[in-house]
Amino acid sequence: MYIQYTMDQLYLPMDLEEDIPQNHLVRVVNDMVNRINDKIFAAAYPGGGRHSYHPKMLTKIILYAYTQRIYSSRQIAKAVRETIPFMWLAGRQRPDFRTINRFRSERMKDVLESLFTALLELLTQGGYVKLDHYFVDGTKIEANANRYTFVWRKAVVRYKMKLQEKVRVLFQTIEVQEQQENLAHEDADLAELGESASLSSEAMEQTLRKLETQLNEQPKDKPLKKAVRLLKKDYLPRMQRYERQEETCGERNSYSKTDPDATFMRMKEDHMKNGQLKPGYNVQAGTENQFIVGYSVHQRPTDTRCLIPHLKQLQRRLGQLPKTVVADAGYGGEENYAYLEKENCEALVKYNTFHRETSKSWKTDPGKLENWTYDEENDQWICRNGRKLGFVRESRSQLDSGYEVKLRVYRSENCEDCPLKSGCTKAKGNREIRVSMTYLRYKEQAREKLRSEEGRTLSARRMA
What we know:
Elements: H1 25-34, H2 39-42, H3 55-67, H4 73-82, H5 84-89, H6 97-125, E1 133-142, E2 150-152, H7 153-181, H8 188-195, H9 201-217, H10 222-249, E3 254-256, E4 263-266, E5 277-288, E6 291-298, H11 307-318, E7 324-327, H12 334-342, E8 346-349, H13 360-363, E9 373-375, E10 380-382, E11 388-398, E12 404-412, H14 421-424, E13 432-435, H15 437-450, H16 453-463
Helix pairs in contact: 1-3, 3-6, 4-6, 7-8, 7-10, 9-10
């Protein structure tokens, strides 16, 4: 009536691999890690002490756990004791959660980059990755930090300037008192420091030592005693704190006190619906055939300035750049186009107005430069009403990265009686435009490629 059932019988085969299907994902993880050179892990194990668990075994169970969306070291250790694929990968060994956590947070951290590169080399050898088409995008990930312990660079600079002004007033007061009392040892350095454009904590510390020496000679000088106490207890510590905060910020506008590497930026998930800034990181990832080929973490909130550092890191890792880079409008800056052209990479990168240019309102707008005509021979622009804008001057500006943008300024001779002026410009005088001819050329090239059959196909593939 029933199939025979007993828990006291020993059954064969005893090999756990027999219970794992041939096309199971765990076999892929096992095969990939087995093909990695053991020398990659040697740097993380200097030797000495008791024998360690094999790093390949720990790497296998961690990678497989991530594919199963298991991230807790305690849950991974539990799976190694209870789940057949994990037990098979571990060879029935049972590392505890501390060992797993220590391996991935300390030892694996040093070899993670080499391990990722080795996996990419295996994908390249198998023909899965050829770096023909590189699809790149970014996302912002909130840091594990307090949302309200922030430091803003502009505020630090403002407070620092106010403090410097207070210190100058204090030094000038001391100098005036010394002159009134006709002291024999007038301090010329103090006067120079009070007049200097920028006061540093180091200069304040040197002056404080001189004032303390002077106070030892005149212990009853109450104004001097008050100034020394004010400098030592208030002004100098504050200046040192502002300088540390300014150094931590670097080129950034902000950072979190509980995670100084995190920058405050707007996240896609805004549960308060008020555009609240949160501490986070901008993570860039590039794929080909849905394999992650490159990744990088940035402190900049905008994708535009992350593309070049991301591609340089990819080149260091793989020794080459992809033939074609496919990206959305967040990356369509002049500097990025110039870099891709210099490195002989085809740029299928949208710019910020690419989709709006196809709308009817854009095509009928008399103020849009794309609806005008450029007379290359006379170097002038002709608007929708036939008015000519002649070249006036050229201006140059430098981005934070050091890239120089050349803007050519054109101005109309007369716009007073133009019937299209109200829709063309809000300026009271004649219309003036600033144009980067280099950027216009890059946008024209990108427009032509993106509207081709191959460009549409790759843009659609990028979404996937």
